[in-house]
Please model this.
Amino acid sequence: MMPLDPVNSSATDMAAMVRSGQISARDLVRRALDRLWLHRGVVNAFTDAVPEQAVIDADRVDARIAAGEALPLAGVPFAVKNLFDVAGVRTLAGSKIGRDGPPADADAPAVARLRAAGAVLVGTLNMDEYAYGFTGRNAHDGPSRNPHAPDRMTGGSSGGPAAAVAAGIVPLTLGSDTNGSIRVPASFCGIFGLKPTYGRLSRRGVFPLAPSLDCIGPLARSAADLALVFDLLQGPDPADRHLARRPQLATAEGLERLPQGLRVARAGGYFREAEFTLANRAVDAVAAALDGPGGVRETGGRILGDVEIADAATARAAAYLITNAEGAAIHADRLRRRAEDFDPETRDRFLAGLMLPAAWVGDAHRLRARFAAAFWRLFDDVDVILAPATPFPAPPVDAQTIRLGGRDVPARPNIGILTQPISLAGVPVVTVPVWLEGEGLPIGVQLIAAPWREDIVLKLARRLELLGAVAAPIAMMAPNAA
Amino acid sequence: MKADLFDAAGLAAVMAPTLGVELRPDWTPGVIAYLELAARMAEAVARLPLDERDEPAAIFEVGR
Model:
């Protein structure tokens, strides 16, 4: 019998407890709602809670279990970034303007799939307005705060999803990632996050930022939970034109078996600037763990010399232009009619994006094709590339500038410099949380694989957990202390 | 492409009425700063020479 520890457990273990009758879905969900209430003033992760509906849904799950259904996420409380459609809840996408619209009439397919698997939605989560930011700040709802240090930012734009998991309110959330919006907050909040291959998961019913780059994915406290949820989120959706027609990939089964002969390399150059002191140490710690006992050598693999991702800075520039232009186009009408209702931290960038010369954006798309093709060729000689997820651990929650290249630069567009180039190539990434000795805050490392090989990086993340090199402990917090 | 010759303030002044968006005085410095940033990004992209054989990454599949 497994220990009954519903707060500290993973989603996988919680579901097992519910299936085996050790705890009911209703009790599990009540505990999540209690913890949500206890910490709401500290982390500000949630913008809407649905306690009554959650208890009704939990009772339905208990009835399904009693009827003999084997639900993979039986009774697991979860929450989603408030840009996912949830039936009966307004899809805010972090905006004030979204508060004037009607509630969504149906769940986004991603939400519906998790509910069908027995998960119970307890609420929706704070985010940078319209997903356009890396800080987790929001003028309308206030900033989400880092559970490990409430004076520090969560990162964004999936700030609420990362904070809710790190605070132990729910074991599992859904976020979106256009340029790093799952990976940056996963890094700052010390949790696991998966940005799947572009086109892998349906994003219907998810408010867009830049459709050429937008992905959705899970955040959790273990690699096994990411794999479980990733497997459940896959599937056809004829109504989503962006979805690639790929066979489903089962990753949860056999997660602890490393593939034979894995070749792992650190990303050099752009991703390894000397000023990224802690980030470089985190990548080295991950590489050392994989090179040591129980690492990739055990299955005939090896750690290679650093690889150079050519033109990474240029790729980052192209991703910036594509996002700026596509994002602005989506909001053009709102910018004409209600610019004063935008968050000041997104309004200026969206307005600028409306005015970009078209050829800049056209060239960015052409560059993307060339950059991505060269990036994918790297995987002829390597299976996983390691790179920091952020240049540093979480900055102060109100930081307006960060130090990069020996000078102070605006924080909002620059925190994601290490995730943006990877987004342009569209490849899958798992961010794993590293706790360096003597440091109070975590920092994430990106495990990057070839297109459609989420299985490899999920297995590697699991191995790093087993080796003790990465972990996502729940933050120690004083209730409602902020 | 020379970002240091880019007149962000001039572009914003022309484009705002063309696009039908309001540029309040306290919003303008931020818009100009982000236009200048975008120009530096465009300059970086332009440093990697592309030619007519470079197709855009976006895919349009007829009938889907």
Q: What stands out?
A: Chain B is about 50% helix and 0% strand. The interface with chain A takes residues 11-12, 15-16, 19-24, 27, 30-35, 37-38, 40-42, 44-48, 50, 54-58, 64 of chain B (CB under 8 Å).
